[in-house]
């Protein structure tokens, strides 16, 4: 094994691929057919400066390092700008070497496509397999490949923190942005990038002075800080988005534990962006080896219980709870290699926190015995545990996955989870043994339920899917049909189709209208929740498995990732791209509408008891308030709060508490995905112990 350290310095006199006589170049590094590194995009520059570093593990030196340069085209096939290769056998070991590579196009060898300047160091890796913990990230590209970055556990400290701190960013507004549309306005949005982490703001239509009021967090991995790259864009339906400008934030120049208001001038464009940036200490995210409980562990647990006790309600409201995941072992995994074995490793994810175990080579029954700890920001988060097969020649192979809502976890119980497929709709081969502990403050968790969910930054882009479009349409149709059937029922009362029923409805209508008070609305909802709760505890559960949604999910076809081509002419015209974009938008709207209706239904069905109890508390409070306080006073207080909110807090982020609450309730699709599969009795821990004794 060899370690190849590469510094991508810059490019000179690269080929122009855009109509403006420039390009948006980025560089791919490949060994064999596997992409091992991809640089950031430098916009509108034929002499880009990257100064990016990459560390690559090389199994042997026979395969050369291929360098391919592309021009980024939003929504279209990226243009090929040239390629070169580096013969690794010609490098001297342990000696930095500056390399100048001339880019060529195999189809047009006479064309001058510029040069790429690198610095490389090749170092032999000595010793046998070591315990390595890996931090995984998915690259933000159209394919779903991911790269891994090794991180060795400290031999001195029992636990090691994987990131140094949190960067909290609030995008406030833009001022005097450049007009990019023919109407003298723009539809601006902003992209942020810190290392491999990315965030995209919402689009503000037809304005040069947008008000975003969006907040998000990045992990800070470097002790000295880092550089946040910020680009502003104008959204154009059916064609490439227009570049408005760019700027950067040097985090090393900002003091910690303090909020900084920054007004940043956009380079290569016009206008300013206004941000609030806060650097805080790292949350407790760590990895350790599984060992027998020691007095030190018991003392630490007591401190954690004290930290999240009911008496510390108002201490750090963002720190809702503590999660400990013990990844013990897996059994009966799928054989992914030609030898009939696999090289499995395990990925543990909670929102944007993702950690990996070491790889156990050539084993279908691996034992990891690792302990992962996370801070919980939202008790409604879902813990995802995925098993992959490590493959040096290409991206890792998927072996199985489970998704576990934190509120469904039974503390301290070692449990065998049947692995599911990528869509989490059906079983795949193997089970994984986990022991999970969740400690949280219920009051903090309730308060956090009423603020926006944390957005997941590392996820695959939406793609057009006929099956997904059909599924969302059927889901929305079912929700709409509930309202239609209710309307038919009411209309039948008006038509006196059944005289006794119509007479009863008429008397009830007169009574309710004559005696109506506003507090009766939450009271009726409260009675509905209570009625369903008593049905559940009495054994008359009216919740049924949604076999229709389950069948639709199982019928969805997996869309395989396609390798990027070296060079290909643009075969898609702007109209085709526009149709695809509209279809994706319709697909997502159908999903949102269907999910909204299903979330309301599942609130009253006690799908998540914690949320149903929270709804009962809220409805009780609303009932009492509306009963004792006249409506005019409530409306007056609400209006004063709304009118003075911006005066009291100029940078407050708008939100809707009801929608934030419903966003925590799982839709029918999520209920099916989070449903546990019954394990094979042969995999039970008790039977395993008996077999060992026998």
Q: Could you explain how this protein is built, in words?
A:
- Mean pLDDT is 78; it is low at 127-161 and 557-572.
- α3 (466-494) packs antiparallel against α6.
- The chain contains 12 helices and 28 strands.
- The chain has a 6-stranded antiparallel beta sheet with strand order 11-20-24-21-28-27, covered by helices on one side. It has a 4-stranded antiparallel beta sheet with strand order 4-1-8-7, with no helix packed on it. A 4-stranded antiparallel beta sheet has the order 3-2-5-6, with no helix packed on it.
- It is α+β, with helices and mostly antiparallel strands and 694 residues long.
- β9 and β10 (146-152) form a beta hairpin.
- It is globular.
Layout of helices and strands:
Layout: E1 2-12, E2 25-31, E3 34-38, E4 49-58, E5 65-71, E6 79-86, E7 97-102, E8 115-124, E9 132-138, E10 146-152, E11 160-161, E12 165-175, E13 188-194, E14 197-200, E15 211-220, E16 227-234, E17 242-250, E18 259-265, E19 272-281, E20 286-289, H1 295-307, E21 321-331, E22 344-350, E23 353-356, E24 367-376, E25 382-389, E26 397-405, E27 413-420, E28 427-440, H2 442-448, H3 466-494, H4 499-515, H5 520-537, H6 547-555, H7 574-604, H8 609-628, H9 631-648, H10 657-662, H11 668-674, H12 685-693
Antiparallel strand pairs: 1-4, 1-8, 2-3, 2-5, 5-6, 7-8, 9-10, 11-20, 12-15, 12-19, 13-14, 13-16, 16-17, 18-19, 20-24, 21-24, 21-28, 22-23, 22-25, 25-26, 27-28
Helix pairs in contact: 3-6, 3-7, 5-8
């Amino acid at each position: 094994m060899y370690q190849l350290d590469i510094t991508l310095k810059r490019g000179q006199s690269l080929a122009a691929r855009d109509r403006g006589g420039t390009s948006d170049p980025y560089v791919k590094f490949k060994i064999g057919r596997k992409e091992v590194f991809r640089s950031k995009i430098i916009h509108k520059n034929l002499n880009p400066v990257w100064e990016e570093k990459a560390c690559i593990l090389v199994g042997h030196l026979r395969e050369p390092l291929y360098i391919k340069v592309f021009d980024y085209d939003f929504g279209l096939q990226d243009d090929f700008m040239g390629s070169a290769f580096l013969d690794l056998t010609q490098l001297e070991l342990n000696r930095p070497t500056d390399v100048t590579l001339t880019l060529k196009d195999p189809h047009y060898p006479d064309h001058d496509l510029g040069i790429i300047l690198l610095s490389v160091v090749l170092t032999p890796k000595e010793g046998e397999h070591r315990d390595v913990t890996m931090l995984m990230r998915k690259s933000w590209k159209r394919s779903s490949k991911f790269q891994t970055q090794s991180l060795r556990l400290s031999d001195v400290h029992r636990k090691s923190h994987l990131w140094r701190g949190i960067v909290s960013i609030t995008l406030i507004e833009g001022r005097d942005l450049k007009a990019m549309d023919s109407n003298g306005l723009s539809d601006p949005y902003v992209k942020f990038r810190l290392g491999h982490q990315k965030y995209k703001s919402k689009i503000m239509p037809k304005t040069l002075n947008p008000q975003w009021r969006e907040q998000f967090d990045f992990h800070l991995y470097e002790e000295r800080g880092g550089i946040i790259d910020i680009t502003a864009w104008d959204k154009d339906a059916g064609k490439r988005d227009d570049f408005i400008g760019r700027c950067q934030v040097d985090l090393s120049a900002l003091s910690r534990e303090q909020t900084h208001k920054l007004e940043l001038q956009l380079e290569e464009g016009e206008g300013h962006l206004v941000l609030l940036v806060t650097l805080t200490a790292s949350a407790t995210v760590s990895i350790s080896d599984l060992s027998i409980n020691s007095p030190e562990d018991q003392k630490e647990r007591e401190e954690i219980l004290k930290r999240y006790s009911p008496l510390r309600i108002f201490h750090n409201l963002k720190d809702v709870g503590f999660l400990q995941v013990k990844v013990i072992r897996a059994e009966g995994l799928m054989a992914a290699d030609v030898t009939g074995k696999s090289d499995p490793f395990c990925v543990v994810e909670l929102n944007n926190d993702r950690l990996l175990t070491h790889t156990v080579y050539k084993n279908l029954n691996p034992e990891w015995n690792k302990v992962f700890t996370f801070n919980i920001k939202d008790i409604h988060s879902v813990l995802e545990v995925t098993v992959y097969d490590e493959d040096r020649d290409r991206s890792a192979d998927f072996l199985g996955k489970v998704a576990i809502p934190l509120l469904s976890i039974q503390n301290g119980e070692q449990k065998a989870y049947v692995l599911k497929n990528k869509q989490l709709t059906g079983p795949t081969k193997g089970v994984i043994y986990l022991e999970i502990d969740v400690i949280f403050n219920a009051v903090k968790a309730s308060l956090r339920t009423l603020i926006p969910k944390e957005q997941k930054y590392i996820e695959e882009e939406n793609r057009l899917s006929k099956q997904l479009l059909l599924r969302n349409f059927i889901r929305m149709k079912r929700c709409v049909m509930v309202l239609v059937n209710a309307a038919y029922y009411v209309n039948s009362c008006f038509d006196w189709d059944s005289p006794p029923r119509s007479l009863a409805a008429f008397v009830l209508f007169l009574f309710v209208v004559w005696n109506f008070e506003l507090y009766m609305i939450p009271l009726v909802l409260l009675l509905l929740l209570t009625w369903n709760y008593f049905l559940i505890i009495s054994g008359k559960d009216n919740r049924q498995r949604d076999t229709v949604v389950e069948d639709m999910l199982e019928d969805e076809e997996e869309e395989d990732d396609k390798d990027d081509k070296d060079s290909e002419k643009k075969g898609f015209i702007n109209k085709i791209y526009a149709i695809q974009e509209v279809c994706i938008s319709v697909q997502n709207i159908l999903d949102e509408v269907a999910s909204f209706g299903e979330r309301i239904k599942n609130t009253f069905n006690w799908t998540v008891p914690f949320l149903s109890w929270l709804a009962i508390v809220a409805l009780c409070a609303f009932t009492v308030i509306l009963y004792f306080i006249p409506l005019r006073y409530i409306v007056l207080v609400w209006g004063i709060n709304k009118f003075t909110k911006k005066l009291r807090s100029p940078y407050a982020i708008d939100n809707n508490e009801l929608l934030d609450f419903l966003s925590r309730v799982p839709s029918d699709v999520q209920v099916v995905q989070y449903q546990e599969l019954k394990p094979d009795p042969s995999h039970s821990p008790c039977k395993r112990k008996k077999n060992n004794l026998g």
